[in-house]
Amino acid sequence: MSDEGTARGRAAAPAGAAARGPVFVEFGPRPEEQGQLVRPGAREEYPPDVQVRLESDAASIVGRYPDSRSALLPLLHLVQAEDGYITPAGVEFCAATLGLTGAEVAAVATFYSMYRRDPTGDYYVGVCTNTLCAIMGGDAILAALKEHLDLAPGGTSPDGKITLEHIECNAACDYAPVVMVNWEFFDNQTPESARSLVDDLRSGGAVTPSRGATLCTFRETARILAGFPDERPGAVEGGIAGAPTLVGLRIARELGMEAPDPADVTGLPESEAPPVTGHGRKGD
Ligand code: FES
Fold this sequence. Notes:
single chain, alpha+beta, Glutaredoxin, four-stranded mixed sheet, globular, disordered C terminus, binds FE2/S2 (inorganic) cluster
């Protein structure tokens, strides 16, 4: 069968384009492209002992939700904790546990970048190369780590310790440029400090982020994200916002700025306007 008339075939030329000939638009995966969640050696199913353990863990997760399908995100973290990434076995486990189709599970797993599609090292090192971090040095940090580790983004070191990736804004722009390791922040990094960081990770020593507890491995982190207790000392201690985070508030106060009255902004009477909370509100 020719491509013509199939999803990979000819698409209608837009109006006015006839004089320039037909327009071909490729839909769907390329023939040489593997399935999005199929990697060589990936588990297709769990051995019985693992299956039993996962079922027990999953039951405690699913029981927290009134609607079982709401447990999909933590269940994906659970199977990621088992395999280090999302495997066909993990997709099938989530689908069977929650009464979903594999396609539904895969659609979610491939939407969120915290779910990995390839085997992941003990430490997932993400360099923010979004706009602010990039111009503050994120691009230089990524280049330094690529050269230092001899890895392209997405690659894992041969010792299985480090997976390098460039990632989008971590919402820590006030500490740019930032690097995340297993989703924990390392603020105000430089090429030198980032090289030193990955060396420390590879040597196996304890490494502590700018905020929070000493790092654990990617799989251990995934289990915590699945909702199991984080028992690392200091893991759940609160903290106050740092000076870079509060600089806008400080300047606003120095200039005598105040948040506008909600009624002025929304046009609604004050009784119907949404509440404004926090510092800077009139009368605070
Ligand atoms: S741009 Fe890097 S944290 Fe926002």
